[in-house]
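Inverse folding, one chain.
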């Protein structure tokens, strides 16, 4: 594993103000949160969210998995959406230039006593992880999961359990996937996950039929389903020692031929729904739900409400009982499900 080099932190603007945390109940287990950032996953191709194909065979069997049907992205590219999620600024106010030198969600969590680590199987953290431990996954970690210049997302699990249990404190792990990044969809999953056939096996999408492109894309979603289910399984196994939470949200969606459009990056106000409507999944251990007195029926009732990347910053802070000058309880998705 390769440690990411930190970005310059000169003239860092601290927007946190006073950071406070409600002490956990006496005798509580440490808190462990997986915040999984997907790549190029669109809600339309998740079986759990209405897709007619079996793209979520494993997650479909996970109990107490909460789904959000109306989740939208901050942008239509990783360069916008990723820093926007962690900035707390919200889509209307966010600009890359005004987020670079501000403290972000990871800084706030660190100040609140959470041990943060960023694990990356993508193109880096865009400066978000400049002040926290960060690991770029490399082929030498698990060679069987890597080919040429890329690795499959299961590599994010390599050594993860040990890194958690070696440090039995409150923790947040950000797991940044390569997910469904195109146009080389067929390279995003092992051969054993080529379930939908035939597939497009070239970056020249014009040389493939729409069915071949869609088959390859749906195979990436089916592999993501496998990886996410393994992450939840790890959290289930650790729930006797930690109160565990799993959050998955994609950075943006993708066009795969609808109306002649491909890939992503369209101007937001003209972008099709396929590029902005994204999946979000939430799982919490029984221990965490009891600790916060969260009723499953309440969380289920939120399923069809409109949420966006704007909510992630505040929801994660709320999960950790941390507040700063930027925290907005009206944007904390689970606030309504926690007793006052």
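Residues assigned per position:
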């Amino acid at each position: 594993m390769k440690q990411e080099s930190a970005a310059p932190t000169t003239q860092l603007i601290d927007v946190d103000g006073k950071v406070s945390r409600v002490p956990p109940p006496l005798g509580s287990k440490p808190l462990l949160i997986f915040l999984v950032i997907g790549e190029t996953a669109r809600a339309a191709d998740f079986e759990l969210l209405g897709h007619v194909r079996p793209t979520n065979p494993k997650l479909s069997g996970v109990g107490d998995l909460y789904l959000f049907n109306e989740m939208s992205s901050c942008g239509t590219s990783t360069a916008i959406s990723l820093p926007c999620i962690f900035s707390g600024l919200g889509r209307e106010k966010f600009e890359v230039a005004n987020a670079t030198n501000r403290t972000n969600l990871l800084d706030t969590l660190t100040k609140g006593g959470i041990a943060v680590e960023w694990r990356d199987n993508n193109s880096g953290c865009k400066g978000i992880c400049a002040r926290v431990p960060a690991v770029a996954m490399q082929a030498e970690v698990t060679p069987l999961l890597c080919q040429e210049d890329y690795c499959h997302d299961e590599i994010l699990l390599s050594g993860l359990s040990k890194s958690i249990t070696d440090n039995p404190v409150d923790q947040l792990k950000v797991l940044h996937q390569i997910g469904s990044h195109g146009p080389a969809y067929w390279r995003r999953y092992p051969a054993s996950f080529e379930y939908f056939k035939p597939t497009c096996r070239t970056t020249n999408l014009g040389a493939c039929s729409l069915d071949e492109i869609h088959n390859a894309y749906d195979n990436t979603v089916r592999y993501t389903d496998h990886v996410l289910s393994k992450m939840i399984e790890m959290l289930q196994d650790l729930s006797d020692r930690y109160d565990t939470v799993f959050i998955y949200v994609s950075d943006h969606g993708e066009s795969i031929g609808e109306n002649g459009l491909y890939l992503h990056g369209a101007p937001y106000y003209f972008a099709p729904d396929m590029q902005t409507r994204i999946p979000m999944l939430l799982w919490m251990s029984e221990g965490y739900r009891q600790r916060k007195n969260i009723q499953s029926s309440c969380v289920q009732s939120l399923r069809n409400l409109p949420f966006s990347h704007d909510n992630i910053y505040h929801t994660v802070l709320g999960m950790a009982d941390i507040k700063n000058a930027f925290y907005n309880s009206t944007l904390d998705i689970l606030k309504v499900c926690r007793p006052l």
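The chain has one domain: 2-6+31-337. The radius of gyration is 19 Å.
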